[in-house]
Design a protein that fits this description.
Blueprint: E1 2-5, E2 8-12, E3 16-22, E4 28-35, E5 78-82, E6 92-100, E7 116-123, E8 128-137, E9 142-151, E10 157-169, E11 175-182, E12 185-193, E13 197-203, E14 215-219, E15 230-235, E16 241-248, E17 251-258, E18 265-267, E19 272-274, E20 278-283, H1 286-301, E21 317-319, H2 321-324, H3 330-343, E22 347-350, H4 378-388, E23 392-397, E24 401-402, H5 407-411, E25 431-432, H6 438-453, E26 457-462, H7 484-502, E27 507-510, H8 520-523, E28 528-530, H9 537-547, E29 556-557, E30 559-561, H10 574-582, E31 587-589, H11 597-619, E32 621-626, E33 634-640, E34 646-653, E35 671-672, E36 682-685, E37 690-692, H12 693-698, E38 701-702, E39 712-720
Parallel strand pairs: 21-22, 21-31, 22-23, 23-26, 26-27, 27-28, 28-29, 30-31
Antiparallel strand pairs: 1-2, 2-3, 3-4, 5-10, 6-7, 7-8, 8-9, 9-19, 9-20, 10-17, 10-18, 11-12, 11-14, 13-16, 14-15, 15-20, 16-17, 24-25, 32-33, 33-34, 34-39, 35-38, 36-37, 36-39
Helix pairs in contact: 3-11, 6-7, 9-10
Length: 727
């Protein structure tokens, strides 16, 4: 619900409120974001306004959209450059409107299905107009915000910075939580107090990157997993981004949006630039409450419509990469597929190496035609044979890349990003196609349409294995090269949108050298993203824990793989590897051809368990009971259905061993206190043992005696009305 009264606008969700007000000079100020206010509560005028009379202390005001040059010396949200060279703006409110439904952001991914939209228009006397758009998702306590920048003047102007979010907080201390990482070690949470000055994370790599994620949290210093004030912000964008947090004498400011690095967007009179949106969450019940709000909203309002129903099964897949790498032929693939069918797997995914001439990573990207040396019957013949085994067929592609040794590059060398007069940088033996050019996107669409029309391909893994370099488009003039990064991203979105609309039954999984583009922008088109190339169970505990701060488990591609692990060389029990794989989309990444019938049969119960409880795992609320330590030696978590009738509990490694991990002395098995259950109810496990809900919440679930290297325990609980004696 949005309430407008006396130039103040209050956006209410079920449990939160967000308020902004215009002062007497027309400056739009942020006044509140926190626990829900009463509908008839008085407007909260800024307490700092009296100190800013006559423009002397504008640096103290909590601007809703800040600009430089008029007295606010903090990090600005927008930096315009007018035709006369001036770089300043004094934005004042000139109108506001509330409309039903959700605002549109042409060409950009966005949350869908909001109840109401608030549009507030600000204008500078020299011609820059900013329309701030807010949408409310009351049930999930999410508010989205975007900005549209428009040139209402008579001369061109340039945007050198065009952020999506500017939000000021009061002077109380805040901690900032970011997700940093690298290849095979993505999204590690880092928490630190905001210090005076500016702290920032971002990407200038053309993708959201392994190094930092476009989602951050601010919280009170005493906030933990289940208690305390937390604010979360997720940018719905997959390219270069910048998140700046500034602590100053006047409080704390957060600015978020497209990175200004190599960004300059020229607006002719009457033209507009649409910035991507940010999803915002406030939670009073700690980081766990914040993460569950994001999870529910992403599942209900961001994922492609077909995949928002958590009762819709996701296929259990086997990916060929770690089984074969580039070394395979049709017989090798069919032997692997036969083993997968015996294990009860649903979908066989052929990874890199299937297209003509592709025996290593040094050729053929851009030529999406099957290699008849390896596949004499083509993809169509392989697909028929897989269907005869009861398996669906999936395929790996990397549409954004081109190999120098490829027919596509020989025909269209100008379609690659490259700076005139310079030798382009080759990373992983490939260049990046210029997706800022519509003809390039159209050519790739025609290739992919032929490919997907050739046989029933149910799944596509869309990979992107390198960063953008030599960012220059032959199709744009010199003074528009600052638009290439963003136009490139718009081209990627356009192709993924076209692909999923033309093939609505297709399951699209995004990937970028593992988890290098795991963000809300990608999730608008693909309901799952490959979480990391590192499939080691211990590593995945930390990776998936950090990822879950914003993104729900149903979006995380996670697979069971061999030991010793191909990437880390470490070992873990079958149970531990299964627990980590079941956390997410659940699949397999290993060579099953060497498995005996008995070994294949040992996998079947886990696949059956996933099929029986997949709706719970995909659509339930996640509670971290014991977060993983830095070594990834143990963790415990649980998933509870929204109606609290069902729960799945996972404990791995040290979570089963209690605090005396190194001790060889016998000790009683630990109990694991649970969360999210109904205290007044009785729950029953798969063996028929019953527990009072209050008992599980307070005393905990008894865990078995741990055995082996990295032990694990999985427990399914279901609420029962039978009041028999509990354990």
């Amino acid at each position: 619900m949005i309430v407008c009264r006396d130039a103040c606008f209050t956006l209410h969700t079920a449990h939160t409120s967000y308020q902004l007000c215009a002062d007497e000079q027309g400056r739009l100020l942020h006044t509140y974001y926190g626990a829900r206010l009463p509908d008839d509560a008085p407007n909260l005028r800024p307490t700092r306004a009296p100190h800013a009379e006559a423009g002397r202390r504008l640096n103290l005001l909590p601007f809703e959209c800040s600009a430089p040059g008029t007295g606010d010396f903090r990090t600005p949200a927008v930096l315009p450059e007018y035709a006369d060279g001036s770089l300043c703006a004094d934005l004042q409110m000139v109108g506001a409107q509330v409309t039903p439904g959700k605002y549109e952001l042409p060409g950009l991914p966005a949350f869908r299905g909001a109840e109401q939209t608030l549009c507030v228009t600000l204008r500078d006397c020299a011609g820059l107009e900013v329309e701030l758009r807010y949408a409310v998702f009351p049930q999930h306590d999410v508010i989205t915000r975007a900005a549209v920048y428009r040139n209402t003047g008579a001369a061109p102007l340039s945007l050198r910075k065009a952020s999506s979010l500017c939000l000021d907080f009061d002077t109380r201390p805040l901690d900032m939580i970011t997700l940093h990482g690298k290849w095979s070690q993505e999204r590690t949470p880092e928490r630190a107090p905001l210090r005076y000055g500016v702290q920032s994370v971002g990407s200038m790599q053309g993708v959201s990157s392994h190094a930092h994620n476009p989602a951050v949290a601010l919280c009170r210093p005493d906030a933990d997993e289940e208690h305390g004030d937390c604010w979360g912000f997720a940018l719905v964008y997959s390219g270069n981004f910048l998140c700046e947090a500034e602590r100053s004498e006047s409080g704390n400011r957060l600015v978020m949006g497209i990175h200004p690095h190599q960004f300059c967007w020229t607006l002719a009179p009457g033209e507009s630039f649409v910035a991507p949106e940010v999803a915002m969450v406030y939670a009073a019940d700690g980081l766990g409450g914040m993460r569950r709000c994001f999870h529910r909203a992403i599942r209900a309002h961001l994922l492609p419509e077909r995949w928002r129903d958590m009762n819709r099964p996701r296929p259990v897949l086997l990916n060929s990469w770690e089984a074969c790498y580039f070394r395979f032929d049709q017989d090798r693939l069919l032997a692997l597929a036969e083993a997968a069918a015996r294990a009860g797997i649903d979908l066989f995914v052929l990874d890199d190496g299937w297209f003509k001439g592709r025996d290593a990573d040094n050729s053929s990207l851009g030529d999406w035609v099957a290699d008849v040396r390896k596949l004499p019957e083509g993809l169509e013949g392989l697909c028929r044979r897989l269907q005869a085994l009861g398996l669906d067929f999936g395929l790996w592609i990397e549409p954004e890349a081109v190999s120098p040794d490829s027919d596509l590059f020989r025909l269209h060398p100008d379609w690659a990003l490259r700076v005139p007069g310079r030798t382009p940088l080759t990373l992983r033996n490939q260049y990046v196609l210029d997706f800022s050019r519509p003809e390039v996107v159209q050519a790739l669409w025609e290739q992919l349409h032929r490919l997907l029309s050739s046989c029933p391909i149910r799944y596509i893994k869309w990979d992107m294995n390198r960063k953008l370099s030599d960012v220059y488009s032959a199709a744009l003039p010199a003074d528009r090269q600052g638009e290439v990064y963003h136009r490139y991203m718009l081209g990627v979105y356009a192709l993924q949108k076209q692909l999923t609309e033309a093939f609505p039954d297709l399951l699209l999984e995004n990937c970028a050298a593992g988890g290098g583009r795991f963000d809300c922008g990608m999730l608008c088109y693909s309901p799952q993203i490959w979480c990391s190339d590192n499939t080691d169970a211990r590593s995945r505990l930390s990776i998936q824990y950090g990822t879950s701060l914003f993104y729900p488990p149903c979006t995380m591609g996670s697979h069971f793989s061999i030991v010793p692990n191909h990437y880390t060389g470490r070992t873990a029990s079958v149970e531990a590897r299964m627990a980590c794989a079941l956390f997410g989309t659940f699949g397999f990444e290993l060579d099953l051809t060497g498995y005996s019938p008995e070994a294949l049969a040992e996998l079947r119960p886990y696949i059956d368990w996933y099929r029986a409880h997949g709706a719970l795992l995909r659509g339930g609320d996640l509670y971290w009971l014991l977060p993983p330590d830095a070594a990834g030696s143990g963790a415990a978590w649980m998933v509870v259905s929204p109606d609290r009738d069902e729960a799945a509990v996972f404990a791995v490694g040290d979570a089963l061993c209690g605090v005396e991990r190194a001790s060889t002395l016998p000790s009683p098995p630990p109990r694991l206190p649970l969360r999210g259950l109904c205290a007044q109810s009785v729950y029953e496990d798969a063996d028929g043992v019953r527990y009072a809900g209050a008992q599980l919440l307070a005393a905990g679930l008894p865990l078995p005696t741990p055995r082996g290297d990295v032990p694990a325990y999985l427990c399914y609980l279901r609420r029962t009305a039978d009041p028999r004696t509990t354990a």
